[in-house]
Automatic annotation (TrEMBL):
This is Cytochrome P450. Keywords: Heme, Iron, Metal-binding, Monooxygenase, Oxidoreductase. InterPro entries: Cyt_P450 (IPR001128), Cyt_P450_B (IPR002397), Cyt_P450_CS (IPR017972), Cyt_P450_sf (IPR036396). Signal peptide: none annotated. It comes from Gordonia alkanivorans CGMCC 6845. It comes from the Bacteria. GO terms for molecular function: cholest-4-en-3-one 26-monooxygenase activity; heme binding; iron ion binding; steroid hydroxylase activity. Pfam families: p450 (PF00067).
Length: 412
Protein backbone atom coordinates (compact mmCIF):
# COMPACT_ATOMS: atom_id res chain seq x y z
CA UNK A 1 0.00 0.00 0.00
CA UNK A 2 2.91 2.34 0.67
CA UNK A 3 4.20 2.00 -2.89
CA UNK A 4 0.74 2.53 -4.35
CA UNK A 5 0.18 5.61 -2.19
CA UNK A 6 3.63 7.11 -2.85
CA UNK A 7 3.30 6.67 -6.59
CA UNK A 8 0.58 9.33 -6.74
CA UNK A 9 3.37 11.92 -6.66
CA UNK A 10 4.69 10.52 -9.94
CA UNK A 11 1.26 10.53 -11.59
CA UNK A 12 0.03 13.86 -13.03
CA UNK A 13 -3.56 12.58 -13.17
CA UNK A 14 -3.60 12.16 -9.37
CA UNK A 15 -3.92 15.90 -8.81
CA UNK A 16 -7.05 15.86 -10.98
CA UNK A 17 -8.52 13.11 -8.74
CA UNK A 18 -8.73 14.68 -5.28
CA UNK A 19 -10.28 11.73 -3.36
CA UNK A 20 -7.53 9.41 -4.55
CA UNK A 21 -4.80 11.98 -3.93
CA UNK A 22 -5.86 12.86 -0.40
CA UNK A 23 -6.44 9.23 0.56
CA UNK A 24 -2.88 8.44 -0.50
CA UNK A 25 -1.36 11.41 1.31
CA UNK A 26 -3.35 10.72 4.49
CA UNK A 27 -2.07 7.14 4.47
CA UNK A 28 1.53 8.26 3.97
CA UNK A 29 1.40 10.85 6.76
CA UNK A 30 0.27 8.11 9.14
CA UNK A 31 2.37 5.18 7.94
CA UNK A 32 5.34 6.32 5.84
CA UNK A 33 5.92 10.10 5.96
CA UNK A 34 9.29 9.81 4.19
CA UNK A 35 8.37 7.50 1.33
CA UNK A 36 10.76 6.39 -1.38
CA UNK A 37 9.33 6.79 -4.90
CA UNK A 38 10.92 5.08 -7.88
CA UNK A 39 8.58 5.27 -10.83
CA UNK A 40 9.37 5.99 -14.46
CA UNK A 41 9.63 8.38 -16.21
CA UNK A 42 10.98 10.22 -13.13
CA UNK A 43 14.21 9.72 -11.24
CA UNK A 44 13.81 8.38 -7.68
CA UNK A 45 13.03 10.72 -4.78
CA UNK A 46 11.71 10.73 -1.22
CA UNK A 47 8.21 12.16 -0.75
CA UNK A 48 8.03 14.29 2.41
CA UNK A 49 4.42 14.53 3.55
CA UNK A 50 4.56 15.98 7.11
CA UNK A 51 4.35 19.73 7.74
CA UNK A 52 7.12 19.74 10.38
CA UNK A 53 9.59 17.86 8.17
CA UNK A 54 8.98 20.18 5.24
CA UNK A 55 9.58 23.22 7.44
CA UNK A 56 12.81 21.72 8.79
CA UNK A 57 14.07 21.12 5.26
CA UNK A 58 13.07 24.60 4.08
CA UNK A 59 14.86 26.18 7.06
CA UNK A 60 18.20 24.51 6.28
CA UNK A 61 18.93 25.87 2.83
CA UNK A 62 22.64 25.09 3.19
CA UNK A 63 21.96 21.36 3.51
CA UNK A 64 18.97 21.20 1.17
CA UNK A 65 19.63 22.78 -2.23
CA UNK A 66 17.31 23.85 -5.02
CA UNK A 67 19.92 23.08 -7.64
CA UNK A 68 20.06 20.93 -9.66
CA UNK A 69 16.49 19.60 -9.22
CA UNK A 70 14.05 22.30 -8.04
CA UNK A 71 10.84 20.65 -9.31
CA UNK A 72 9.75 17.21 -10.44
CA UNK A 73 10.26 16.64 -14.17
CA UNK A 74 10.93 13.50 -16.16
CA UNK A 75 14.48 12.19 -16.35
CA UNK A 76 14.67 13.08 -20.04
CA UNK A 77 13.44 16.64 -19.43
CA UNK A 78 15.81 16.96 -16.48
CA UNK A 79 18.82 15.96 -18.60
CA UNK A 80 17.78 18.31 -21.38
CA UNK A 81 17.33 21.26 -19.00
CA UNK A 82 20.77 20.70 -17.48
CA UNK A 83 22.41 20.51 -20.89
CA UNK A 84 20.70 23.73 -21.89
CA UNK A 85 21.99 25.55 -18.83
CA UNK A 86 25.50 24.21 -19.38
CA UNK A 87 25.38 25.63 -22.89
CA UNK A 88 24.28 29.04 -21.63
CA UNK A 89 20.59 28.66 -22.46
CA UNK A 90 17.60 27.20 -20.63
CA UNK A 91 15.53 28.34 -17.68
CA UNK A 92 17.03 29.42 -14.35
CA UNK A 93 14.49 31.25 -12.24
CA UNK A 94 14.56 32.14 -8.54
CA UNK A 95 13.23 28.68 -7.70
CA UNK A 96 16.29 27.13 -9.37
CA UNK A 97 18.82 29.19 -7.40
CA UNK A 98 20.54 28.87 -4.03
CA UNK A 99 22.12 31.51 -1.85
CA UNK A 100 24.11 33.69 -2.06
CA UNK A 101 23.17 34.18 -5.75
CA UNK A 102 19.47 33.63 -5.07
CA UNK A 103 19.37 36.39 -2.45
CA UNK A 104 21.03 38.89 -4.78
CA UNK A 105 18.75 38.11 -7.72
CA UNK A 106 15.62 38.12 -5.57
CA UNK A 107 16.49 41.61 -4.30
CA UNK A 108 16.14 43.05 -7.82
CA UNK A 109 12.34 42.66 -7.79
CA UNK A 110 11.68 42.55 -4.07
CA UNK A 111 10.84 46.23 -3.58
CA UNK A 112 7.94 45.93 -6.01
CA UNK A 113 6.17 43.53 -3.65
CA UNK A 114 6.81 45.31 -0.34
CA UNK A 115 3.89 46.81 1.63
CA UNK A 116 4.53 50.42 0.54
CA UNK A 117 4.50 49.49 -3.14
CA UNK A 118 1.40 47.35 -2.76
CA UNK A 119 -0.49 50.10 -0.92
CA UNK A 120 0.01 52.28 -4.00
CA UNK A 121 -1.36 49.44 -6.14
CA UNK A 122 -4.44 48.81 -3.98
CA UNK A 123 -6.71 51.34 -5.71
CA UNK A 124 -5.94 49.86 -9.14
CA UNK A 125 -6.51 46.30 -7.91
CA UNK A 126 -9.83 47.26 -6.31
CA UNK A 127 -10.94 48.92 -9.55
CA UNK A 128 -10.00 45.80 -11.51
CA UNK A 129 -11.90 43.60 -9.06
CA UNK A 130 -15.03 45.68 -9.65
CA UNK A 131 -14.45 45.54 -13.39
CA UNK A 132 -14.40 41.74 -13.38
CA UNK A 133 -17.39 41.34 -11.07
CA UNK A 134 -19.26 43.74 -13.35
CA UNK A 135 -18.21 41.49 -16.22
CA UNK A 136 -19.85 38.56 -14.46
CA UNK A 137 -23.08 40.55 -14.43
CA UNK A 138 -22.74 41.30 -18.15
CA UNK A 139 -22.11 37.71 -19.22
CA UNK A 140 -24.41 36.04 -16.64
CA UNK A 141 -26.38 34.22 -15.49
CA UNK A 142 -23.81 31.53 -16.33
CA UNK A 143 -20.07 31.53 -16.99
CA UNK A 144 -16.96 29.42 -16.76
CA UNK A 145 -15.45 31.26 -13.80
CA UNK A 146 -11.92 30.05 -14.59
CA UNK A 147 -11.89 31.00 -18.24
CA UNK A 148 -13.98 34.17 -17.98
CA UNK A 149 -12.82 35.73 -14.70
CA UNK A 150 -10.19 33.97 -12.60
CA UNK A 151 -7.56 33.89 -15.34
CA UNK A 152 -7.89 37.48 -16.45
CA UNK A 153 -8.01 39.43 -13.19
CA UNK A 154 -4.56 38.40 -11.80
CA UNK A 155 -3.11 38.27 -15.32
CA UNK A 156 -4.03 41.91 -15.84
CA UNK A 157 -2.54 42.90 -12.47
CA UNK A 158 0.87 41.25 -12.83
CA UNK A 159 1.40 42.07 -16.51
CA UNK A 160 0.42 45.70 -15.89
CA UNK A 161 2.98 45.76 -13.07
CA UNK A 162 5.59 44.48 -15.50
CA UNK A 163 4.52 47.13 -17.99
CA UNK A 164 3.54 44.81 -20.85
CA UNK A 165 1.04 46.05 -23.46
CA UNK A 166 -2.48 44.73 -22.98
CA UNK A 167 -2.57 43.26 -26.47
CA UNK A 168 0.18 40.82 -25.38
CA UNK A 169 -1.76 39.50 -22.36
CA UNK A 170 -3.46 36.61 -24.26
CA UNK A 171 -0.08 35.43 -25.53
CA UNK A 172 1.39 35.42 -22.00
CA UNK A 173 -1.62 33.47 -20.77
CA UNK A 174 -1.30 30.85 -23.51
CA UNK A 175 2.41 30.36 -22.90
CA UNK A 176 1.82 30.03 -19.16
CA UNK A 177 -0.87 27.40 -19.73
CA UNK A 178 1.47 25.47 -22.00
CA UNK A 179 4.35 25.62 -19.51
CA UNK A 180 2.47 24.69 -16.32
CA UNK A 181 0.02 22.47 -18.20
CA UNK A 182 2.61 20.32 -19.93
CA UNK A 183 1.12 17.21 -18.30
CA UNK A 184 -2.47 18.06 -19.24
CA UNK A 185 -3.76 17.13 -22.68
CA UNK A 186 -5.94 20.24 -22.93
CA UNK A 187 -3.08 22.63 -22.20
CA UNK A 188 0.11 21.01 -23.50
CA UNK A 189 1.58 22.26 -26.75
CA UNK A 190 2.61 18.78 -27.86
CA UNK A 191 3.61 15.34 -26.69
CA UNK A 192 7.34 15.56 -27.44
CA UNK A 193 9.99 17.24 -25.32
CA UNK A 194 10.99 19.44 -28.27
CA UNK A 195 7.42 20.70 -28.68
CA UNK A 196 7.18 21.49 -24.99
CA UNK A 197 10.54 23.25 -24.91
CA UNK A 198 9.33 25.44 -27.77
CA UNK A 199 7.11 27.17 -25.20
CA UNK A 200 10.19 28.29 -23.27
CA UNK A 201 11.82 29.43 -26.49
CA UNK A 202 8.78 31.59 -27.27
CA UNK A 203 8.94 33.07 -23.76
CA UNK A 204 12.65 33.79 -24.12
CA UNK A 205 12.33 35.36 -27.56
CA UNK A 206 9.57 37.67 -26.31
CA UNK A 207 11.47 38.72 -23.21
CA UNK A 208 14.78 39.14 -25.03
CA UNK A 209 13.12 41.81 -27.15
CA UNK A 210 11.59 43.36 -24.04
CA UNK A 211 14.97 43.42 -22.27
CA UNK A 212 16.64 45.24 -25.14
CA UNK A 213 13.83 47.79 -25.22
CA UNK A 214 13.88 48.46 -21.46
CA UNK A 215 17.66 48.76 -21.35
CA UNK A 216 17.59 51.28 -24.15
CA UNK A 217 14.56 53.16 -22.77
CA UNK A 218 13.66 52.37 -19.13
CA UNK A 219 10.01 53.12 -18.38
CA UNK A 220 9.87 52.86 -14.59
CA UNK A 221 8.03 49.52 -14.46
CA UNK A 222 9.03 46.13 -13.05
CA UNK A 223 10.26 45.02 -16.47
CA UNK A 224 12.70 47.95 -16.47
CA UNK A 225 13.91 47.03 -12.97
CA UNK A 226 14.63 43.48 -14.09
CA UNK A 227 16.24 44.49 -17.39
CA UNK A 228 18.57 46.91 -15.65
CA UNK A 229 19.23 44.83 -12.53
CA UNK A 230 22.83 44.29 -11.55
CA UNK A 231 24.61 41.68 -9.45
CA UNK A 232 27.94 42.74 -7.93
CA UNK A 233 28.04 45.61 -10.39
CA UNK A 234 27.40 43.43 -13.44
CA UNK A 235 24.15 43.17 -15.46
CA UNK A 236 22.08 40.03 -15.05
CA UNK A 237 22.95 37.35 -17.58
CA UNK A 238 20.58 36.89 -20.51
CA UNK A 239 19.38 33.59 -19.02
CA UNK A 240 18.72 35.09 -15.58
CA UNK A 241 16.99 38.14 -17.03
CA UNK A 242 14.63 36.18 -19.26
CA UNK A 243 14.03 33.63 -16.50
CA UNK A 244 13.10 36.40 -14.07
CA UNK A 245 10.45 37.65 -16.46
CA UNK A 246 9.13 34.13 -17.01
CA UNK A 247 8.60 33.36 -13.32
CA UNK A 248 6.98 36.73 -12.57
CA UNK A 249 4.74 36.75 -15.65
CA UNK A 250 3.62 33.13 -15.33
CA UNK A 251 3.58 32.18 -11.65
CA UNK A 252 2.53 35.74 -10.84
CA UNK A 253 -0.93 35.11 -12.20
CA UNK A 254 -1.48 31.39 -12.71
CA UNK A 255 -1.17 30.40 -9.05
CA UNK A 256 -3.51 33.23 -8.02
CA UNK A 257 -5.99 32.07 -10.65
CA UNK A 258 -5.94 28.62 -9.08
CA UNK A 259 -6.50 29.99 -5.57
CA UNK A 260 -9.33 32.31 -6.69
CA UNK A 261 -11.23 29.68 -8.65
CA UNK A 262 -10.64 26.95 -6.08
CA UNK A 263 -11.70 29.34 -3.34
CA UNK A 264 -15.00 30.06 -5.06
CA UNK A 265 -15.58 26.36 -5.59
CA UNK A 266 -15.03 25.79 -1.85
CA UNK A 267 -17.59 28.47 -0.99
CA UNK A 268 -20.16 26.88 -3.31
CA UNK A 269 -19.52 23.46 -1.79
CA UNK A 270 -19.74 24.92 1.71
CA UNK A 271 -22.75 27.28 1.59
CA UNK A 272 -22.70 27.70 5.36
CA UNK A 273 -19.23 29.23 5.12
CA UNK A 274 -20.37 31.50 2.28
CA UNK A 275 -23.28 32.70 4.44
CA UNK A 276 -20.89 33.19 7.36
CA UNK A 277 -18.65 35.35 5.19
CA UNK A 278 -21.66 37.39 4.09
CA UNK A 279 -22.60 37.99 7.72
CA UNK A 280 -19.04 38.63 8.86
CA UNK A 281 -17.17 40.41 6.05
CA UNK A 282 -14.27 41.11 8.43
CA UNK A 283 -13.38 37.42 8.05
CA UNK A 284 -12.18 38.06 4.48
CA UNK A 285 -8.51 37.90 5.57
CA UNK A 286 -8.79 34.48 7.23
CA UNK A 287 -11.09 33.30 4.43
CA UNK A 288 -8.42 34.10 1.83
CA UNK A 289 -5.79 32.21 3.84
CA UNK A 290 -8.12 29.21 4.03
CA UNK A 291 -8.74 29.34 0.27
CA UNK A 292 -4.99 29.33 -0.30
CA UNK A 293 -4.48 26.39 2.09
CA UNK A 294 -7.40 24.52 0.55
CA UNK A 295 -6.18 24.87 -3.03
CA UNK A 296 -2.36 24.87 -2.59
CA UNK A 297 -1.66 25.85 -6.23
CA UNK A 298 2.07 25.01 -6.03
CA UNK A 299 1.99 21.29 -5.30
CA UNK A 300 5.68 20.76 -4.62
CA UNK A 301 9.24 21.87 -4.76
CA UNK A 302 12.22 19.57 -4.57
CA UNK A 303 15.50 19.80 -2.69
CA UNK A 304 18.73 17.85 -3.06
CA UNK A 305 20.89 16.88 -0.09
CA UNK A 306 24.32 18.55 -0.03
CA UNK A 307 25.57 15.95 2.47
CA UNK A 308 24.48 12.63 3.97
CA UNK A 309 21.62 13.24 6.38
CA UNK A 310 18.37 11.82 7.76
CA UNK A 311 14.73 12.88 7.74
CA UNK A 312 12.56 11.36 10.50
CA UNK A 313 15.21 8.66 10.90
CA UNK A 314 15.31 7.77 7.19
CA UNK A 315 18.88 8.02 5.81
CA UNK A 316 19.22 10.20 2.70
CA UNK A 317 22.54 10.29 0.91
CA UNK A 318 24.31 13.27 -0.59
CA UNK A 319 22.89 13.90 -4.05
CA UNK A 320 19.49 12.30 -3.35
CA UNK A 321 16.35 14.41 -3.68
CA UNK A 322 13.24 15.03 -1.62
CA UNK A 323 9.78 16.07 -2.84
CA UNK A 324 8.16 18.62 -0.54
CA UNK A 325 4.46 17.72 -0.74
CA UNK A 326 2.84 21.03 0.20
CA UNK A 327 -0.65 19.71 -0.50
CA UNK A 328 -0.10 17.01 2.11
CA UNK A 329 1.44 19.41 4.64
CA UNK A 330 -1.63 21.63 4.34
CA UNK A 331 -3.85 18.73 5.45
CA UNK A 332 -1.57 17.56 8.27
CA UNK A 333 -3.71 16.50 11.23
CA UNK A 334 -0.96 17.46 13.69
CA UNK A 335 -1.05 21.09 12.53
CA UNK A 336 -4.66 21.77 11.51
CA UNK A 337 -7.81 21.01 13.47
CA UNK A 338 -10.25 19.20 11.17
CA UNK A 339 -7.94 19.72 8.15
CA UNK A 340 -10.57 18.51 5.68
CA UNK A 341 -13.06 21.11 6.89
CA UNK A 342 -13.16 24.39 4.97
CA UNK A 343 -13.30 27.09 7.67
CA UNK A 344 -13.31 30.77 6.63
CA UNK A 345 -12.45 31.77 10.18
CA UNK A 346 -9.56 29.34 10.64
CA UNK A 347 -6.90 30.83 12.90
CA UNK A 348 -4.07 30.24 13.19
CA UNK A 349 -3.52 28.95 9.68
CA UNK A 350 0.07 27.80 9.29
CA UNK A 351 -0.25 26.65 5.70
CA UNK A 352 2.78 26.20 3.48
CA UNK A 353 1.14 27.14 0.18
CA UNK A 354 3.68 29.96 -0.32
CA UNK A 355 6.60 27.79 0.75
CA UNK A 356 8.80 28.69 3.69
CA UNK A 357 12.22 30.13 4.38
CA UNK A 358 14.41 31.90 1.83
CA UNK A 359 12.21 30.74 -1.06
CA UNK A 360 8.96 32.06 0.43
CA UNK A 361 6.87 33.30 -2.50
CA UNK A 362 7.97 36.76 -3.65
CA UNK A 363 4.43 37.69 -4.69
CA UNK A 364 2.54 36.29 -1.67
CA UNK A 365 1.33 39.69 -0.43
CA UNK A 366 0.13 40.66 -3.91
CA UNK A 367 -1.80 37.39 -4.31
CA UNK A 368 -3.48 37.93 -0.94
CA UNK A 369 -4.39 41.50 -1.85
CA UNK A 370 -5.90 40.45 -5.19
CA UNK A 371 -7.99 37.75 -3.56
CA UNK A 372 -9.23 40.06 -0.80
CA UNK A 373 -10.21 42.66 -3.38
CA UNK A 374 -12.06 40.26 -5.64
CA UNK A 375 -14.01 38.43 -2.94
CA UNK A 376 -14.75 41.66 -1.04
CA UNK A 377 -16.38 42.93 -4.24
CA UNK A 378 -18.08 39.68 -5.23
CA UNK A 379 -19.61 38.32 -2.03
CA UNK A 380 -21.76 41.34 -1.01
CA UNK A 381 -23.22 41.44 -4.52
CA UNK A 382 -23.93 37.72 -4.73
CA UNK A 383 -27.59 36.70 -4.35
CA UNK A 384 -27.19 33.08 -5.38
CA UNK A 385 -24.58 30.75 -6.87
CA UNK A 386 -24.40 27.06 -7.83
CA UNK A 387 -22.52 24.76 -10.15
CA UNK A 388 -23.72 24.69 -13.76
CA UNK A 389 -21.59 21.64 -14.52
CA UNK A 390 -18.75 19.59 -13.07
CA UNK A 391 -15.59 21.44 -11.92
CA UNK A 392 -12.57 20.09 -13.79
CA UNK A 393 -9.01 19.97 -12.44
CA UNK A 394 -5.79 19.97 -14.45
CA UNK A 395 -3.33 17.08 -14.48
CA UNK A 396 -0.01 18.24 -13.05
CA UNK A 397 2.90 17.42 -10.78
CA UNK A 398 3.90 21.03 -10.12
CA UNK A 399 1.44 23.95 -10.46
CA UNK A 400 -2.25 23.57 -11.09
CA UNK A 401 -5.86 23.83 -10.10
CA UNK A 402 -9.21 24.15 -11.80
CA UNK A 403 -9.34 24.28 -15.59
CA UNK A 404 -13.08 24.83 -15.70
CA UNK A 405 -15.63 25.99 -13.13
CA UNK A 406 -19.09 26.34 -14.74
CA UNK A 407 -21.38 28.33 -12.46
CA UNK A 408 -24.90 29.74 -12.44
CA UNK A 409 -25.46 32.85 -10.36
CA UNK A 410 -27.40 35.99 -9.61
CA UNK A 411 -25.46 39.19 -8.93
CA UNK A 412 -26.46 42.71 -7.99
Amino acid sequence: MTDEAANVFADPTAYADEPRLHAAMTYLRAHNPVAYVDKAPYRPFYAITKHADIMDIERDNNLWLSEPRPVLVTAVADDFARSQLESGAGLRTLIHMDDPHHKKVRAIGQDWFRPNALRELQVQVDALAKRYVDKMVEIGPECDFVEDIAIHFPLYVILSLLGLPEEDFPRMHQLTQEMFGADDKEYQRGATLEERMATLLDFFNYFSTLTASRRANPTGDLASAIANGRIDGEPLSDVDTASYYVIVASAGHDTTKDAISGGLRALIENPGELDRLRREPDLIGTAVEEMIRWTTPVKEFMRTAAADTTVRGVPISKGESVYLAYTSANRDEEIFDDPFTFDVGRFPNRHLAFGYGVHFCLGAALARMEMRSLFSELIPRLDSIEFAGEPELAATVFVGGLKHLPIRYSLR
